[in-house]
Amino acid sequence: MNRCGVTVLGATGSIGLSTLDVIARHPQKYRAVALTAHRDVEGMLRLCRLHHPEYAVMADADAAQQLAAQLRRVDGDIEVLAGEAGLVQVAELTQADQVMAAIVGAAGLLPTLAAARASKRILLANKEALVMSGALFMNEVHNSGAELLPVDSEHNAIFQCMPSGYRAGREAAAIRRILLTASGGPFRDYPLEKLSRVTPAEACAHPNWEMGRKISVDSATMMNKGLELIEACWLFAVPAQRIQVVLHPQSVIHSMVDYLDGSVLAQLGNPDMRTPIAHALAWPERIESGVDALDIFRIARLDFEAPDPARYPCLRLACEAWELGGTTPAILNAANEVAVSIFLEGRIPFTGISQVIEHTLGAVAAEPADTLQRVLDANAQARFVATQFVCGQGWRSGT
Ligand SMILES: NC(=O)c1ccc[n+]([C@@H]2O[C@H](COP(=O)([O-])OP(=O)(O)OC[C@H]3O[C@@H](n4cnc5c(N)ncnc54)[C@H](OP(=O)(O)O)[C@@H]3O)[C@@H](O)[C@H]2O)c1
Asked: What's the gap in Å between 217 CA and the centre of ligand 1?
């Protein structure tokens, strides 16, 4: 039997490692044909030894040289590529039937678009790519006949609750609302007046999920839910008004679909990304993922509440950006990436993140997002404006 070839973009990250864990459980079905990372040479070397891909790509050119030198001693058959061109090349490989898009942030946009253009099955974790370029990306998927499977746990849950035969990007019949669940992050019950003093380590300590640092901070601000709301509008062709964000602290229900007849379908499971990854890899079949069975008696109760707008200004900003449309979501995303990375360096307070984004949204004029160049320009301009704003504020951590 021919094994399914998988390119894993962002292989050294949290989603990349979970993907490789699932692939390794099914060596007769899947093989990793290409792995990519940014600078983590040691991590990539370990993965190359374990998975023997045909290609290993480092986005950073120096890191690629180091990896090539080290691999020559271990496995000379692996071809090392560098830079964005290398990422795009392995997203288009004929040997790759599926591409896991798990680079964090805007850096994933071009390879993910390339996978769409090359008609791959795309397992989409990199929500930022879709937020930035929604219309362009969905057009590529439709025109090329690529298959799009959501990996974000909420969107994967919604996909699983859709009518049988449903394909991402189409409007489904008889749906009243989508209920997009959110844990509320580590500061759900934290005193509002103390939020400005929380540390990067506290913001990254998510109560239920183990994730990369950027998405962990996004979960704490709930920008993650804002990006997911935009992602859901594109993936399920629904207006934002028909998506209700629901705080659900246990993270056991991963989202719900509310049908016109009053039925509400939910997908439940332990908070472990190997479930949506295994679902997307094997769809429409099911495979074992390594995730424990859900112990419903231990969970015992499920709580729901509406998010408090005063606690989560980033969620409001994302909703506004979606309504304004054009390049506004790309501007929102870029400003957020800058703000989060500067917060993680300890240079702005947690509450400064939404201020940087609000300022940038007001300062960068939106354009129609009808060409890739316009999206990339908006991304670059927003990064510049957000960085300048931070420099001009004279913020110090904890102020
Ligand atoms: N983690 C989760 O549970 C989860 C759940 C749902 C959705 N997602 C989404 O999945 C994506 C990945 O999240 P993650 O938590 O796995 O992130 P992560 O742990 O930070 O990993 C990010 C990956 O992207 C690579 N990368 C970073 N910057 C890059 C660049 N400039 N060029 C090329 N590659 C780059 C990293 O390489 P290095 O290791 O070399 O830096 C790493 O392999 C994000 O879009 C996130 O929103 C994550």
From this structure: 13
pTM: 0.97
Q: How far is CA 310 from CA 60, 171, 193, 316, 349, in A?
A: 40, 33, 11, 9, 17
Listed in order, the ranges of the chain carrying CATH 1.10.1740.10 are 313-386
Q: Between β-strands 98-101 and 79-82, what pairing exists: parallel, antiparallel or unpaired?
A: unpaired
Ligand 1 pocket member 10 (CB < 6 A): yes
The alpha carbon of residue 22 and the mean position of all alpha carbons in its chain are separated, in whole angstroms, by 18
Residues forming CATH 3.40.50.720 domain(s) in the chain: 4-150
**Closest listed residue to residue 313, CA positions, set 197, 249, 220:** 220
Give, in order, the Cα–Cα distances in Å from 52 to each of 163, 252, 318, 398. Answer: 39, 35, 41, 46
64 lines ligand 1 (CB under 6 A): no
Query: What is the number of residues in the chain?
Result: 399
pLDDT in tens, 117-148: 999 999 999 999 999 999 999 999 999 999 99
Domain 4-150 fold: Rossmann fold (3.40.50)
Provide the edge-to-edge strand list for the sheet that holds 264-268. Answer: 243-247, 175-182, 253-259, 264-268
Ligand 1 contact via 273 beta carbon (within 6 Å): yes
Asked if 252 and 181 touch (Cβ cutoff 8 Å), the reply is no
Is any atom of ligand 1 closer than 6 Å to the C-beta of 16? yes
Q: What is the CATH architecture of 313-386?
A: Orthogonal Bundle (1.10)
Q: Show the tokens assigned to 7.
A: 């390119």
User: With a 6 A CB cut-off, is 59 part of the ligand 1 pocket?
Assistant: yes
376, exposed or middle or buried, with CB in 10 Å at 0-12, 13-18, 19+? Answer: middle
Please give the pLDDT value at position 398. 47
Cβ of 122 closer than 6 Å to ligand 1, yes or no, is no
**CA 210 / ligand 1 centre spacing (Å):** 12
